[in-house]
Records
---
Amino acid sequence: MNYVLLKKRIENENKKTILYGLNENTEKIIKKKISKKIIGVSGNEKETGKLLGKKFFSIKKIIKKNILIVITAKKPTNIVIFNELRRLSNSSTVSICDIDGKNFDKKNELNFKSHYKSILDIKKKILSHDVISFDLFDFLVERKNKSTWGQIENIANELVKTNKLKKKFVKERLIAEKKISKKNNTFSLNEIYFSMRKKFKFNKKKENKIIKDEFSLDVKRMYLRQEIKEILLYTLRYSLF
């Protein structure tokens, strides 16, 4: 992330700025205080209140305003977010850039006519089949951090702060996940924390709180792919059940 280039872009735009993404990059930019034009953050419709003094904004309220949106996610997640924002926003008033203040390359832009033609084709195929299955992660729902281990590490660091855990918890949380994933393809947070119970001497109450906190932090780092949601709702509408 280049703070100098980002500051230059923000200052050169005759617009107020929103940071899109509830992540470490957003926090770093706010703490650096690079521009007074940054008025808030967005990225999760359920969020209310403030982040480090910056107000949360619903994306629905800002996509039609004269504003600069800085996508703070890393590649390739930022490209996915860029295309979704471009589809929703008024391109004549909304400017979008990455964390270095750069515009997104045109080769990353979806051809929305062909994109939505393909969605219509999918809907037609749905009507001709009896069973339709939807994968959850990386299809209907995507995590903002594409790296599974990076996601776990970020969340574990948050848990250390909020639950007053030892710093070695981060490393042990990663090890526990790797060990259990070698034995089973599917497993729960309860199983992961059960394997860590002896090492950290969690009582049941504290263990349940940490599990609940981790689940909440994980959900906050996800977003729904609207085009897949549209297909899912279409499928349910024409379901026999």
---
Amino acid sequence: MAEPTSTAASAFVAAASAFTLTLLGVEYHALVWALAGSLAALAMAPAQQQQATPRTRLRAVAFVVFSTLAGAAISGGLVVLLGGGKPVQILLALATGYGAQAVLEAALRAVLARLEKFGGSS
């Protein structure tokens, strides 16, 4: 029996991926492999993040959604810049889907630090 968090995350990402494919034109295999990378990263998350509470379930779903979308978009952009074919894009999507959480968290921290620097803390 599958874990409820993984099942809910997978179902949500499947619906979001169909919407993203039609709206943004992201290639299907990039989205699938970015999803595989983000689910692998979720499976390897520290144990304190895997305890089943409503907040951690929501965080897991958001993690998978944003990592998948970021991984697919980044890999698509990198293939255009670097060249290569479908195998290169698949490997890039897997890697960027896996590492997207760290990149997104670092970017968010940098933006918040910049806002604090300019506006001060309130």
